[in-house]
């Protein structure tokens, strides 16, 4: 069967050879430099986004920047269909290793990718949970069983108020917070950090809300 143009574009959008702590994983991401929410947070002295590694990498590597810009265009402006979704030969998959949610169509597309690959546990990190809520209402969709939503805390050294957030956004499974060395002693640093493949904490659902804490690099 001939592949659709969108399927070819999506296959190119996926990063099949992640490095560093994500080695062994595949992922699909957009650019924070094309995201108004990310750009605004990068200006803050207290937001973890001020230390955005993705922005630094994109400024250094033109090829990465151009790919993430193309991904943003595809995922936020094109409504993918089932025939556009490739089979992902993997146990785990990450959404937004570099960026964040821009709009509701992006959420719809991510849910469809998960629905078409029920064998694969997919995890999304986001600081914009209201976009997921809006997408569910707008499109009448629900979060797939193989989809984990991790609320990424905006502030450095301050965990999001999970009780308050999850009462409003019950689809959140975990809260991820980054701490610097001066505050790391206040919490349990339980993020594997060096290797997601050996840690896998973020890729398994727990009975209740789980807090994942990482040391600032």
* Estimated structural class: alpha/beta
Oligomer: single chain
Largest sheet: 6 strands, parallel
In order across it, which strands form the biggest sheet? 1-2-3-4-5-6
- Evaluate the radius of gyration: 17 Å
Give an overview of the whole structure:
The structure is a single chain. The protein is an alpha/beta fold and 217 residues long. The chain has one domain (5-215). A 6-stranded parallel beta sheet has the order 1-2-3-4-5-6. Helix 1 (5-13) crosses helix 4, helix 3 (53-60) crosses helix 4 (62-77) and helix 5 (104-115) crosses helix 6. It is globular and about 55 Å long. The chain is 34% helix and 14% strand.
How is this structure best summarized?
With 217 residues, the protein is α/β, with parallel strands linked by helices.
